[in-house]
Design brief:
This protein is an alpha/beta fold and 299 residues long. It folds into two domains: 85 residues, 3-Layer(aba) Sandwich (Rossmann fold); 131 residues, 3-Layer(aba) Sandwich (Rossmann fold), CATH 3.40.50.720. Helix content is 39%, strand content 16%. The chain has ten helices and eleven strands. A six-stranded parallel beta sheet has the order 1-11-8-7-5-6. A three-stranded parallel beta sheet has the order 3-2-4, with helices on both faces. Helix 6 runs parallel beside helix 7. The radius of gyration is 19 Å and the shape is globular. The structure holds NADPH dihydro-nicotinamide-adenine-dinucleotide phosphate. The site of NADPH dihydro-nicotinamide-adenine-dinucleotide phosphate has 25 residues, from helix 10.
């Protein structure tokens, strides 16, 4: 039996359309335009692609997009001064500093300089603490996108056994917090976990955020489980060594035969990440203006 494919591309388009609808109403009813500032330091090619895509989708949603491109040798003090300006700019509701930063900068210091209310990546230590204590926060975009897909597919997640493989601050840990917030019984697995196969086989919901191509085979998946594959790994194309292709952390071909539902790579979690960035910017703008937050777009 083949699993239901959770179409992240289609769902992300739906979320973006929802965001655009709210943005149009904010403009019309309140004269407010949500604004997202993206800061890119240096010329990392992958980061440039992400930043371009974020800017394009921000404008398509009807929001204002502010791009700040700084040279790789920009001083940390100059970056902090820019963040201070953006923190105090009322037209900017969301600030995203594209990671990774050049080696001479302290990423934690930079991220924690962002006003937590404008921290649409949800990486500021205050937002991490708020999420951990079940309070209203800005939630990291990738785990938020995973949660939205799970809620859409299952309705509610209460009582389900969830296993998150990976414990990074960006994906694994916030994902686990969100699943706990939705009353799952949560296990976080990592590189030191004993008998990872057995741990994964206990999961009704299996989230893979490891960064190792096709590491989780189908026989680690409980029959009927929902598999969310966060991994994005570029590998050599099996038929054409000159080309590459993207694969997840889960071996899709074997897992799709066992799972009840599964996200593909590409076209699963990836598109949801930028959609959630837009949703977070809208949420931040609504909060900043004392307006009701859009339903279904936050945790
Ligand atoms: P990190 O490298 O920060 O974390 C990887 C985690 O996987 C670590 O906790 C590590 O454990 C664990 N791990 C590594 N090897 C194993 C193993 N053999 N068995 C069990 N656990 C293992 O990665 P990220 O969380 O940043 O990203 C994970 C993946 O998600 C990557 O492929 C990344 O590209 C992708 N990603 C996708 C996004 C999207 O938009 N779709 C956004 C962000 C990331 P330990 O802590 O013990 O070292």
């Amino acid at each position: 039996m083949s699993a239901t494919i959770i179409d992240g591309k289609a769902f992300a388009a739906k979320v973006r359309a929802q965001v655009a609808g709210h943005v149009a109403r904010l403009k019309e009813d309140h004269g407010v335009t949500p604004g997202l500032a993206v800061v890119l330091v240096g010329e990392d090619p992958a980061s440039q692609v992400y930043v371009r895509s974020k800017g394009k989708q921000t404008v398509e949603a009807g929001m204002a997009s502010f791009e700040h491109r700084l040279d790789a040798d920009t001083s940390e003090a100059d970056l902090l001064a820019l963040i201070d300006t953006l923190n105090n700019d009322p037209a900017v509701h969301g600030i995203l500093v594209q990671l990774p930063l050049p080696g001479h900068m302290n990423s934690d210091l930079v991220i924690n300089a962002i006003d937590p209310a404008k921290d649409v990546d949800g990486f500021h230590i205050s937002n991490v603490g708020l999420l951990g204590t079940g309070q209203k926060s800005m939630v990291p975009c990738t785990p938020l996108g995973c949660l939205m897909m799970l809620r859409e597919h299952h309705g509610h997640l209460s009582g389900m056994n969830a296993v998150v493989v990976g414990r990074s601050n960006i994906v694994g840990k916030p994902m686990a917090q969100l699943l706990l917030g939705d009353s799952c019984t949560v296990t976080i697995a990592h590189s030191r976990t004993r008998d990872l196969a057995a741990v994964c086989r206990g999961a009704d919901i299996l989230v893979a955020a490891v960064g190792r191509p096709e590491m989780i085979p189908g026989d680690w998946v409980k029959p009927g489980a929902t598999v969310i594959d966060v991994g994005i790994n570029r590998i050599q194309h099996p038929e054409n060594p000159e080309k590459t292709r993207l694969v997840g952390d889960v071996d899709f071909v074997s897992a799709v035969e066992v799972a009840g539902a599964i996200t593909p790579v590409p076209g699963g979690v990836g598109p949801m990440t930028i959609a959630c960035l837009l949703a977070n910017t809208l949420t931040a703008c609504s909060r900043a203006n004392g307006l009701q937050e859009p339903e279904g777009l936050t945790a």
